[in-house]
Amino acid sequence: MLHNLPHICTHQDIKIKPIMKFTNIFSKSKSKAKAKLGSNTDKNELNSSIKNKGQDQNSQKQQLRKALNDLSHPVFPNGIYGQIAIDLQGDGFEVELPIVLGKFAPEIINLLQQQTELATPIKFTYKPTVTSKDKIKNIKLVVAVASGKGGVGKSTVTANLAACLALQGIKVGVLDADIYGPSVPIMFGLAGQSITSKDGKTMEPFERFGVSLNSIGFVVPEDKATVWRGPMASKALMQVINETNWPKLDILLVDMPPGTGDIQLTMSENIKCDGALIVTTPQNVALADAEKGINMFNKVNTPILGLVENMSQFVCDGCGKTHYLFGQDGGRSCADKHKVSLLAQLPLLPAVREGADKGTPYVLNKNLASENAALEYHQLAFSLMMQISKQTESVITLG
């Protein structure tokens, strides 16, 4: 179940080690400000002084912003880039954070004191982020499962992750947003099924293995290609999202199409997404596109909850030797580079593929429940929930 975390504070003042002093160009006394200017030399000197002080303040403001952007901590491994506003206030600066970061004020202040050598009175203020994005009715949290490149197993990871969450008592749904290549119907054994409606206005989601499901694949005939231009595809996605009669869900996993195109932009502009999970393989070709996905979500201020390295290794049935078919630890390197958490390194396993083809996620195979790969999927589910609790104002309890 979900619990709202209390707001720890509404403001906080700190002073950092005195290396430089931020000055205020408006701190001159009124009498001096009103003093009559004399010669042109006096005027030039005053203008030059004001200009230099203004440049100093801009430089100091940039230094402060960089210090905040570069903060490194497990709670916000990607810093707080793009989520801060810095304004001049008297002799110091006021730093405004969205409330989602406000509860981490003690960590931010502590890190600033440890990792920077700036000096100024800094006041932190927090307020709820003002946004025109809509929350989906009955959905508490929305998580995008994305990849820059197709064929990395993103839909397979989504299906197994959803099944793990359902097994732990989480009310979970999956929205298949891959308009051009929907996979959810097949992976959940619902291929060929058509959507139904009770009121003629909204679509009723399917439920399978305790997971609520909807996909464009339930709307478009199975053997028909969706030859749609970007605007039409985006409109279709919004219809599937907003016209689905979702039950009350703790979390909705959105299986995103590969890339950073119209569908991704439509989602980011219209739907309040609480975080993104990036799926990649260790291969350099896939990692290059995964980085583009990370950068895109950063630009639209969607927290990166973590990275999953899929098809990490293959263990030979015959000799027991581990083979790194797509390279080794590429996902870890990518996660370290972008300061995001590596949540799992999942193996390449025939049983995972077979489960997807047969319409039953691998983790639901009781004969394989104790296998290492199944346990790694369950650990991924737990790690994802921990990241959500750290980066949002909600906590989901497993079990």
TrEMBL record:
What's the name of the protein?
Answer: Iron-sulfur cluster carrier protein
Is Metal-binding one of the keywords UniProt gives this record? yes
HAMAP family from the entry? Mrp_NBP35
Q: Where does the record place the region Disordered?
A: 33-64
Keyword Glycoprotein annotated: no
Enumerate composition-biased segments (Polar residues): 38-62
Q: What is the lineage of its organism?
A: Bacteria, Pseudomonadati, Pseudomonadota, Gammaproteobacteria, Alteromonadales
Which GO BP terms, alphabetically?
Answer: iron-sulfur cluster assembly
- Family matches, as PANTHER family: IRON-SULFUR PROTEIN NUBPL
